Structures are given as structure tokens and as C-alpha cells.
Amino acid sequence: MPLAPGTGTGRIQYLDVARSYAMAMVFYGHFIERLMMLDEPAAATLYKFIYAFHMLLFFVLSGFIARERDLSSGAWQYFQYRFLSRLLPFIFFTVVFMGLAALFPGDFFDLKLPSIQGYIGGLVMTGLGIPLFCVPSWFLLLLFSVEMIHYLFFRLGIRDAGASRTDLKILIAIPAFYLCGYYLNLYGDFLNLAKHRMYNFLFVHEAVIMYAFYLAGYYLRRRHFLIGEGSAKFLAPGAMIAFLIVWFTFRLNQGPFNFNYYNAVVIMMSSHGHLFWFPATALAGSLGVFLLGKLTAGWKTIAWMGRNTLILMCLNGVFYHFINPPISQWVLALYAGRPVMIFLSGLVMTVVSMALCVPFIYLLNRYVPQLVGKPKIRGPWLPALVRT
Fold it and tell me: Cα angle at 209 between 185 and 171, to 5 degrees?
């Protein structure tokens, strides 16, 4: 398969910055979610705004940074690396949070922890695709499945195509995967907690529709989107317009939602909403973050955070389970009914939470990089798990 120009292995810093912003939205959204669960209306609006696009953004970004040369690997080599860089971190952080649950009081929904019954129930739910010990880690399961589809699609459908034919096939595949995944999840009812239905192995059902967004990011990379110099005169107003589109369209997505408890876009629950407004809003928000990342590409500290997205995603579980619940009650007691303060409290909590993660990111990268998504690195405690 020929490589498209500009698809080398070097990092593109604006993408790392954009990934950092995407992670900030995860921290923000999970804190705001707690306020929404306490019946704060301003928080509900902010939650639905963020969730309308932020998880879709991760798949567009993941597709953008996917390396074409990986698709030339043998099936076992490709699977092995994805297992070690996606599923092994999922297992590692699950074990870590099982230990934390024995030491600190937290909110693990209906699990009674620490207790044998609670741990057994949590492991059963985790095996069924609902990782109750570290809820944010669900993304790793879905990303693994999306990447498996990516490998199969290219090996079986585009292996010997030239550059122009590959682009055409990608453009045809994006709406095809989207429509198949949309109706599969709308009528398949694979994950329905109210009905105790959990046919959710590695989120394969959701991976079909998410692959459409992953493939959109992959196509943008092939077209060198925002690679090279960019004018702030275009980037700043472009980002503003994109976010305004999200603001004026996210309310238009009135369903049908699979997760009726929130009536919002919740990718973990395969709850997407309207056939058109769901992708339109998600792609507008993704474009806004891409443009914002390009505009602020020189912010090296933010880029460093973005290079550690996987670790941050799982460390967010500390706040999701242990810290956000009591802090949200305190914030609501002070600022209930004051939308501006609710908005600002979420920003402050996000900045503080991510800053607190920095030393743990350093320690994990220093001592066990092999267990947190970097199996090619040799560490002081473990050897490299994959030969370079």
C-alpha cells in the first residue's frame, strides 16, 4: 500500500495540544455530570453541550494519528501491539482501582466495596463491558475494537488500491459505516442497563459507528489537514464559528436516545440521537478543537499533557469515583442556581485535577511505561514488551 505524502512517524504538536483539550473536556464533563445528577439545570446544559462532541473528537483524533505503515504489519503483530497498548493498560488500571477501592471510600454505583461480593460483581460487570472500578477506562475497549476494524477494512478492502482509489473508498466507507452503526445500535439494544441487557463485548457494536469518525480523521490526515503553516486570522474565527455551530445545534438533537436517563449523547451507552444532528454537531465540535489546537500549537506543556492522553483518561477515574462526588455537593451548596459560577467551578476543578495528575504521569512513564500504553519502552522494572 503506498504511503500518502506527509504521513511520517513524527509527532504533530498541534494534535497533541488538541488531544489535551479533548482530555480537559473529559475532566470537565465528568465533574459537571455530578452537578447535573444533583439536579442543577445549568450543569445539565453544559453536560449535553460537551457530550455532543467530545468523545467523537477522540476518534477523529485517533484516526488522524493512525500510522499507515502499521497496516502493513502481520495480523498477529498488529493485534499484539494493540492488546499491549490498549487492553493491558485497561487491565492494569482496573487492578489499581480495585486496590484504591479497598483503601478509600468512593462512589462505585451499586458495588459494595470493599467486599468479596462487591469485587465479584464489579469484575462481572467489567467483563460485560461496564468497567465499574474505573469507568473512564471504557474508552480503551472501544478504541481497541475500532482499530481492529480499521486493520480488517484496509487489509481486505483497500490493500492494493492506489492513492486516489483509496481516498474514494474511504469517502464511500465513512457514511456506510456510520449508517450501519447508527441503525445497528438504534435497534440492536445491545446495552440496556434498565433491562439488564449487556451484550457489550469490547464495544464491538459501538465500534462500527465510531469507525466512521475514526476514518474521517484518517482521511483528513491523508489530505494534510492543517499540517504546515496556518494563519491566526483564519484559525481563531474558524474555531469560534465551529463552537457556535455546536452551541446552536446540540439542542436540536432530541433523540431517539438509547440512554433515556440522560437524554443526551453518551457514547459509552450507544446513545446517539438524531441521524443528522448527531454527526453534524460532533464534527463541528471536532473541527473547533482542531483549529484551537493549531492556533495554540506552541504551548509545549499542553502538548505534553496531550501525549499522555491514555494515562490521563484512566487517572480521571480517581476524580470520577473518589473526588468529584463530595466536591460537587460542596459546589452546589455554594452556587446552586448560579450558572456562571457553575461554569467557572467546572473550569477550576478541571485545571486543578489535571495539574494533580502531572506527578503520577511522570511516575508511571518512568517506572511502568509498558503498562500504560508504551510497550516498546524499556523501563527500570520491566523490559520492553514489543521489539522495535
Answer: 145
Q: pLDDT by residue (tens digit) across 72-106?
A: 889 999 999 999 999 999 999 999 999 999 999 99
Where are the chain's structural domains? 13-371
Tell me the CB-side half-sphere exposure of residue 226, using CA atoms within 13 A.
Answer: 26
Asked whether 386 and 80 are in contact (CB, 8 A), the reply is: yes
SS (H, E, C) the chain: CCCCCCCCCCCCHHHHHHHHHHHHHHHHHHHHHHHHHCCCHHHHHHHHHHHCCHHHHHHHHHHHHCCHHHHHCCHHHHHHHHHHHHHHHHHHHHHHHHHHHHHCCCCCCCCCCCCHHHHHHHHHHHHCCCCCCCHHHHHHHHHHHHHHHHHHHHHHHCCCCCHHHHHHHHHHHHHHHHHHHHHHHHHHCCEEHHHCEECCHHHHHHHHHHHHHHHHHHHHHHCCCCCCCCCHHHHHHHHHHHHHHHHHHHHHCCCCCCCCCCCCCEHHHCECCCCCHHHHHHHHHHHHHHHHHHHCCCCHHHHHHHCCHHHHHHHHHHHHHHHHHHHHHHHHHHHCCCHHHHHHHHHHHHHHHHHHHHHHHHHHHHHCHHHCCCCCCCCCCCCCCCCC
pTM: 0.94
Distance CA 62, CA 18 (A): 11
CA angle 341, 343, 349 (to 5 degrees): 95
The strand pairing partners of 210, in sequence order, are none
Nearest to 206 by CA among 227, 191, 195, 196: 191
pLDDT of 5 reads 33
